[in-house]
Amino acid sequence: MNIDKMKIQHAEIIHKISRLRELSRAGVTAHAQEIAQTVISMSSVIKVHLSTEDQFLYPYLEKVNDQKLKTMSVNFQREMADIVAEYEKFSRRWNTANKLINCDEAFRRDANVVLRKVHERMQREDHNFYPLVEQL
Asked: Which segments constitute the Hemerythrin-like domain (predicted)?
């Protein structure tokens, strides 16, 4: 199965997480507008990515003859539900400059927790899951 588009989306999301880290270090209040725009932009990529997985990847994997991959797929889907809920809460909380101004430490705390989970999840997909999918 060709999953190049999903891998490109992962790279985009990781780039946006890195950009948020840079902006946060430079000052959340000072860069509130760009941080909010990056959160919104990243949310769009994440929504498209999740939709692609839900509409194409997971249904495809339900039909394969590889029980290990099927089990891994189900586990990834279940785990992602919690991560998505946390990310959606994060993105709603920090999607405008006004919400970020004078909330530097709160944003950093939230970002460290939520974005680390997103990043770690994508790393596991890239290293453990996607290589198996590409062999199909």
From this structure: 3-133
